[in-house]
Amino acid sequence: MAFYPGTCLLTQTELLDLSFMEHRAQLLAVAAFLDRLDRARGGAAGVQEDFRLRAFREALHELTSPEPGRVRRAQMLLSDQNLGLLDLRDSQSAFGASRRVHTSLGNEVEQ
Amino acid sequence: MNYIDLHAHMISRTTDDYHRMALTGCLAVTEPAFWSGRDRLGPQAFADYFDHLTTFEPERARQYGIAHYTWLCLNPKEGEDRELARQVLALIPDFLDRPNVLGIGEIGLNRVTRNELATFRDHVELALEHGQLIHIHTPHLEDKYKGTRVMVEALAADPRIDPARVLIDHAEEHTVEMILGHGFWTGLTLYPKTKASPARAIDMIEMHGPERLIVASACDWGPSDSLAVPEFVLEARRRGHDDALIGRIVLENPARFLGQSPKFVPVGTGRGTVAAD
Questions:
Q1: Domain locations along chain A
Q2: Does residue B110 lie in a domain region?
Q3: Does any domain span residue B29?
Q4: Interface ipTM
Q5: CB A95 to CB B141 under 8 A?
Q6: pLDDT tens digit string along B47-102?
Q7: Structural domain contains residue B238
Q8: Residue B225 contacts residue B13 (beta carbons within 8 Å)
Q9: Which of A92, B11, B116, B251 is the most buried (most CB within 10 A)?
Q10: A26 contact B CB<8A
């Protein structure tokens, strides 16, 4: 279970004392964001299939995983794992999640 | 604590930033060439930019006791335009002899296209031809993992590349091992929203050790913090780290990497002078 054990110099209690309030606030900010999405105009199903929200929800599962390495796995869920080069630039900026998703048939579709 | 901010786009910051950085112990900054927020109109705009980076900006920094160094390139955001890349690459050698130019950077990929990779390779060739250090930008967000892999694999396959003379920047949890594992210097960027926080940077240093790791602000015209490095120092102390470890990350490591350029002048630390290896 341990992942790089003992590399954080603080005890678990010290780390909680130092950081709990900050991360409690971050947790509530995510919860409020999801509630706000539900209340936003556009209907309940408006963005449920959005590639960003889908990746976000998958990454949220990592937060409740008992296995260390959560941030790395969440990063990969938010990454384009297709190493193929694009023929041409499709946009100037990144989106935070990949439009390209793998289907159950093993091929790839653009969202 | 004295520090070097190895990645700071000071052209887009006010003189107040130099003032505050000096007050918090900044001894030197290095400024990679980058995107201005819009594509430039032509190659002459880059000539003007390179002149600014090698004349006006070092003088502005000097007034606050900060040494200013720079890196030159066509940035990855504009690397898709191969004709522009050819024109800008032809300009760069005329600037390489200027006293504050340490190398070629920040080159790299943006959306990881064929043209961007070709422009990246052209810059690497230029650096090798002129014996320059290389500073590499890795892509943002969903493109970071694949872009980092593509560049690391391209460089690792080239026997002319000495990884000790290359810094690959903007590493995060899913790319840091890949970069360190190939022997490159590795940058952790303290940049809100899209890169790492001080706490996450400390996590990575705790897990992977301080060898060949540096931190920098990458402060620019976007939401960013020119005092991100001293914020890192404060957070590292709160996490129980001593000044020997912190000083290694914020001063000694960047000085070791930069000191491979004969133009980099060792900077005082208060604990003696940091010299290149």
A1: 49-81
A2: yes
A3: yes
A4: 0.92
A5: yes
A6: 999 999 999 999 999 999 999 999 999 999 999 999 999 999 999 999 999 999 99
A7: yes
A8: no
A9: B116
A10: no
